[in-house]
Amino acid sequence: MKKEFDTVVVGGGASGLTAAVFAARMGCSVLVLEQKEKLCKKIYATGNGKCNFTNKDWQASYFRGSDFSLAEPVLRSFDLEDTLAFFKEIGVYPKERNGYFYPASEQAASVAESLSREARRLGVECLTGVKVSRVYKEQKSSKGTAHAETRESCTENAGIFVVETDNGKFFGKSLVLATGGKASPAHGSDGSGYPFAKSFGHTVIPPLPAIVQLKAEGKFFKTLAGVRTDGRVTLHIGKDIYAEEGELLFAAYGISGIPVMQVSRYASVALYEKKNVTAELDLFPALEEGALAQEIARRFRLMKDNTAEEALAGLCNHKLNYVMLQQCGLEPTKKAGAYGKKEASALAEIVKHFTVKITDTNGFEQAQACTGGVPLTELTESMESKLVSGLFITGELADIDGTCGGYNLQWAWSSGAAAGKKIGGTYASHSTVETKH
Ligand SMILES: Cc1cc2nc3c(=O)[nH]c(=O)nc-3n(C[C@H](O)[C@H](O)[C@H](O)COP(=O)(O)OP(=O)(O)OC[C@H]3O[C@@H](n4cnc5c(N)ncnc54)[C@H](O)[C@@H]3O)c2cc1C
User: Fold this and answer.
1) What pLDDT, in 10s, does the model give residues 130-160?
2) Taking CB atoms and a 6 Å cutoff, what residues make up the pocket around ligand 1?
3) pTM tops 0.85
């Protein structure tokens, strides 16, 4: 097998394959090295198997990181229109639901397979089941060394990247680190890219779980496990607040659901910095506190001979009603008539501002993304290293994480395309390849 390429891509996931496709379209010889048994393993699991691959509502503020404003030019260089056009071109017809884009097939496999097929169609060599263990750059290609004949096409000054794997060494005029971060290691992103980036002199901001469930204090969580309810979560970290609304999900360990996942990265960072984090839950957003108090008082009056718990039936989930009464110091089995306006107001306050202490997040195994990575200040808008020319860092390995809604994949496509195009324009040894099918 050929050992030397215009570019070697470490990681056959979302950003790596995108980089590979764009570099190959511009005439580069490309090798993708993927440690898992198949390409794009994570993509198959995205969006609950449907792959929410981008979003109509597209703003830089949906992306977080130490220098998230630097993500904007990268995202603009391959934006929503480009993303939809690209996927249509390779066979993925998009379907929009409330601004969220999925493949019309509603199968994440369509995205993974179309991308892999396009890479292979363009002649990209994809080696799966091959783990990269070390990467470095040899500055001079002096004739007479063991690899001299494999490096004929490299310019003397540019140097060459050496990629060591459990299946031998490979060489690239350029190198893309697209290993992902540490979220969901079962899909291959096991954090192995961080030491590679560090070995080239890059900073790595410690990765932490993002888009993840939150663990909270309280014995009542065991009772509430499995309860789903519309609500609002407001995270309090010192004077900072982060709020989201949607379906909340209770678990024995704490809280989950989309709104919780959306704010979780702030809890992750704050807990890492040993700050206090509390989550205030509004468990009945449909009514203002005063109106809710009146409704509860009305029920206490109307159903005075029933238990307090029975009087609340049909308001919140019955398990929530029970726990809220207890948290308020009211006895669920006592006659509702024993309680009046004062208790109703106290209960409404608890339901609207139920506050729990966040103790931890779930681990990387459950996280859908991670914070941290290589800061964008160390990369150009083409995702090229400012420290080592020809080295590119894409996707989650860079310090950008998006909110739920297709933004993490959008970052993967945009950063991958930016790198691939720059590589194509700089290192291609052949002419441009036909992109139309
Ligand atoms: C369950 C789940 C659901 C998600 N759903 C969505 C969604 O619907 N929408 C959305 O926008 N985002 C979603 N995401 C996030 C999104 O999938 C990631 O942000 C995105 O895949 C990151 O792309 P990447 O190229 O940086 O890394 P990855 O896609 O993780 O790819 C990295 C690849 O590198 C390989 N690799 C790592 N180290 C080595 C090595 N040493 N040698 C060889 N290969 C290596 C890995 O095996 C992996 O295949 C989801 C994530 C998860 C876990």
Assistant:
1) 999 999 999 865 444 444 434 444 444 479 9
2) 10-16, 33-36, 41-42, 45-47, 51-52, 131-132, 178-180, 183-184, 187-189, 192-193, 368-369, 395-397, 406-409, 412
3) yes
